[in-house]
């Protein structure tokens, strides 16, 4: 029996579509919000940051990371836009959004980048083995003993934060900011970066408290800040939040939806993999389609034979 590619693809599409439709309602109901009730949060006031890189150094020391190629007191590194990687969990970048001083020189604004520790993180939803989890204190932490190296978390993260140790062929890990989980789990503990900032540009506390602080600053001095707290609503809200005098788009921040991102991947995952229901349905539908196709072919062949006999 010859089965055309068009027939196979059509049958497959119908089968998958039926499975998705049948399970979509259940999958949506099963998608859950992982946002903890009373997590910690960090507020970064970009109008105060001076780009000293003390936060980078503290992060390096707390997490026992390799020494950087460029010393922490060398600010020339700020001339290049950097991203966090497996050896640096947070970095400072310098931007010139357009403001000038009295000498008509462009005034820089510095922005700290690290894992945002989303309230409902897409990376946790994407991890098929539970190597990433959202903790009640707000941290998104990683368990290397569970990781299988699929790197789905890297694809799922809207901020492009998780990094992979490609230079470690035998024991690679996914690496990112830990929110200093052990430190903040202790009474009075703070993330390393928040504890050393010389100008107090980083405020650590309960998320609701620092969010109220951010809004209070904006209300008190509307000429200094734009009316937005970045991270309050982006992708369902994040543990790290920012206030600024310039539009965030000019400072390297992404424009993201308010809806938590795990909703879509969880719907697809639950639809396809829930108790292997959909794969079984798919194969059953394909088998049924092939049987129907075979019957039609056989019936057509019988009719052709009968017509041939009549002509004789």
From TrEMBL:
Q: What name has this protein been given in UniProt? A: Fe-S-cluster-containing dehydrogenase component
Cofactor names from the entry are:
[4Fe-4S] cluster
Q: Where does [4Fe-4S] cluster 4 bind?
A: 127, 147, 150, 153
Binding of [4Fe-4S] cluster 1, residues: 49, 52, 55, 197
GO terms for cellular component: cell envelope
Please tell me where this protein is predominantly located.
other
According to the record, the segments passing through the membrane are: 275-293
The protein's UniProt keywords, in alphabetical order, are: 4Fe-4S, Iron, Iron-sulfur, Membrane, Metal-binding, Repeat, Transmembrane, Transmembrane helix
Q: Which residues bind [4Fe-4S] cluster 2?
A: 59, 177, 180, 193
Q: Which SUPFAM superfamilies match?
A: 4Fe-4S ferredoxins
BP-aspect Gene Ontology terms: cellular respiration; formate oxidation
**Membrane among keywords:** yes
Can you give the residue ranges of the 4Fe-4S ferredoxin-type domain? 40-70, 138-167
Q: Which cell locations does it reside in?
A: Cell envelope
InterPro entries in UniProt: 4Fe4S_Fe-S-bd (IPR017896), 4Fe4S_Fe_S_CS (IPR017900), FDH_Electron_Transfer_Unit (IPR051555), Formate_DH_Fe-S_su (IPR014603), TAT_signal (IPR006311)
Specify the species. Desulfatibacillum alkenivorans DSM 16219
Single Gene Ontology MF annotation:
metal ion binding
Write down how the cofactor binds this protein: Binds 4 [4Fe-4S] clusters per subunit.
Top-level taxon of origin: Bacteria
Q: Which residues are involved in binding [4Fe-4S] cluster 3? A: 115, 118, 123, 157
């Amino acid at each position: 029996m010859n089965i055309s590619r068009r027939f196979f693809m059509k049958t497959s599409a119908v089968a998958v579509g039926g499975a998705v439709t049948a399970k979509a309602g259940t999958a949506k109901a099963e998608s859950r919000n992982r946002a903890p009730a009373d997590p910690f949060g960090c507020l970064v006031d970009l109008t105060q940051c001076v780009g000293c890189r003390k936060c980078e150094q503290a992060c390096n020391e707390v997490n026992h990371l390799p020494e950087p190629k460029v010393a922490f007191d060398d600010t020339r590194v700020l001339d290049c836009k950097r991203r966090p990687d497996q050896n640096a969990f947070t970095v400072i970048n310098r931007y010139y959004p357009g403001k000038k001083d009295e000498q008509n020189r462009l005034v820089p604004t510095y922005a700290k980048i690290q894992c945002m520790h989303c309230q409902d993180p897409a990376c946790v939803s994407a991890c098929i083995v539970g190597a990433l989890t959202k903790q009640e204190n707000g941290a998104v932490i990683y368990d290397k003993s569970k990781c299988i190296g699929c790197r789905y978390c890297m694809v799922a993260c809207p901020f492009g934060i998780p990094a992979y140790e490609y230079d470690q062929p035998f024991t690679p890990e996914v690496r990112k900011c830990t929110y200093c989980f052990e430190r903040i789990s202790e009474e009075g503990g703070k993330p390393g970066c928040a504890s050393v900032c010389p100008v107090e540009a980083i405020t650590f506390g309960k998320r609701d408290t620092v969010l109220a602080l951010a809004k209070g600053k904006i209300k008190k001095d509307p000429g200094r800040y734009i009316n937005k707290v970045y991270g309050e609503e982006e992708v369902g809200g994040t543990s790290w939040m920012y206030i600024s005098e310039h539009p965030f788009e000019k400072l390297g921040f992404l424009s993201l939806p308010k809806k938590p991102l795990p909703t879509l991947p969880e719907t697809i995952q639950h639809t396809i993999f829930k108790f292997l229901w959909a794969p079984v349905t798919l194969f059953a539908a394909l088998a049924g389609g092939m049987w129907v196709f075979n019957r039609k072919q056989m019936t057509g062949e019988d009719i052709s034979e009968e017509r041939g006999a009549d002509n004789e």
